[in-house]
Amino acid sequence: MPTHSHTWRADLYLLVATLLAGLGWIFSKEVVAVWPPLLFLGVRFFLGGLLLLPFAWSAVQQLKDIEFKIILRVGLIFSLGMVLWIWGLTHAKQLGVGAFLNTLAIVLVPVIAMAYGERPSVLVWLALPLSVLGMACLFLESHFALGMGELAFLGAAVVFALSFTLTSQAAYHLPILALTSLQLMIVGLVSLVLSAGLETWNFQQPASLWLWLALSIVVSTCGRFLLQIKGQGLAPASHAILILSLEPVWVAIMAALWFGESMSAVQLIGCVLIFSAVLMSRWKVIWQLLKG
Questions:
Q1: Which of 22, 104, 161, 173 has the lowest CB atom count within 10 Å?
Q2: How confident is the prediction along the chain (292 residues), in pLDDT tens digits per residue?
Q3: Do 239 and 120 touch, CB atoms closer than 8 A?
C-alpha cells in the first residue's frame, strides 16, 4: 500500500495527467470531426499501448497468470467505460450536461473504495459535494435533457468509478509500465473489434488528421495514462480521484484558448469551487509541504 510520504508525488503525477487529459479533449475533437469515433478510440489506445510495450516487455515476461487475469479484468472494465463515453460524446444532446454526468464518478469512487478496505478521510467527504457543486456550475447552464447520450455518460461514470478503484488496487502490486501498456492495448482491441462491425473505415484523410492522432496517442494516451496509473499506485483511490476532477477545468480553459469559447461568471465560480475542493482534500499534505 502507498505510504503518506508518497502522497505529494502522487498529486504531482495526477495533476500533470489532468493537464494532458485536457489536451486530449482538444486533440480528440479535431480527429472525430472527420473519423469514426470507435475507430479513433481503437487506434489511439492500441498504438498507445504498443508504443509503451518495448519499455514494459521485461516486466510483462515476468507476469504470472493471475496477474494477467487481473490486467485483463481491469482492461475490459475500462474498455466498457470508454465505449460508453464515446457513445455519449457522439449522441448527447447537451455535451455540458453529459460531461457533468460523466464526472459524477468522483462521488462514486470513495464509496466503491470502501468495499476494498479504504477509509476516506473526513476532508475527502467534505470536498466531494464542493467538487460536484463546482462541476454543476461549470456545465449545467444549458437546459437539462436526459437522452441516450446522457444515459451513456451516466453509465460511463459508474464504470469509470469501478475501473479507477480496481486499477488503483492493481497499481499497488503490479509493474506500472506493464499494467499501463496492456490495459491500453485491451481497450484498443475491444474498440477496433466493435468498430469493424459497426463503422465504415476510411484512411484517406487530410495530413492534419494524422498530426492530431499522433498527439492524441503520444501525449494524451501514453503520457497521460502512464502518469495517472503511476499516481494511482502511490495514493488511495478516494484521494486520487479528486485531483482528477480538475480535468474539466483544464478542458474549459483550453477550449476558451483554442476554440475561442468564453466562460461565464458562473463557470468561473465552478472552477474556483473545484480547485477549492482539491485543496481541501489535500490540506494535510499541503500544510506539511509548507512546513518543510
A1: 173
A2: 444 556 678 888 888 988 888 888 788 878 887 889 899 999 999 999 999 999 999 999 999 999 999 999 999 999 999 999 888 877 766 555 566 667 677 777 777 878 777 777 787 788 878 878 877 786 666 555 567 777 888 889 889 989 988 988 898 889 989 999 999 999 999 999 999 999 988 887 788 888 899 999 999 888 888 888 888 778 776 667 667 777 767 776 776 777 666 667 887 787 788 778 767 766 765 666 566 5
A3: yes
Residue 69 burial by Cβ neighbours in a 10 Å radius (0-12, 13-18, 19+): exposed
Cα radius of gyration rounded to whole Å, the chain: 18
Our CA dihedral for 270, 104, 28, 228, rounded to 10 degrees, sits at 100
User: Taking Cα atoms as reference points, which of 32, 53, 24 lies closest to residue 183?
Assistant: 53
Which grid cell sits at 134? Answer: 463546482
The burial of 231, by beta-carbon neighbours within 10 Å (0-12 exposed, 13-18 middle, 19 or more buried), is given as: buried
Residue ranges of the domains in the chain? 4-291
Alpha helices (H) in the chain, listed in sequence order: 7-32, 37-61, 65-91, 95-102, 105-114, 122-139, 148-173, 176-198, 207-217, 224-232, 237-244, 247-258, 265-281, 283-291
Per-position DSSP letters for 147-216, written without gaps between them: -HHHHHHHHHHHHHHHHHHHHHHHHHHS-HHHHHHHHHHHHHHHHHHHHHHH--------HHHHHHHHHH
Q: From CA 224, how far away is CA 217, in angstroms rounded?
A: 10
- Torsions phi, psi of 88, nearest 5? -65, -40
Cα dihedral 120, 122, 123, 124, rounded to 10, equals: 30
CB–CB of 49/184 below 8 Å? yes
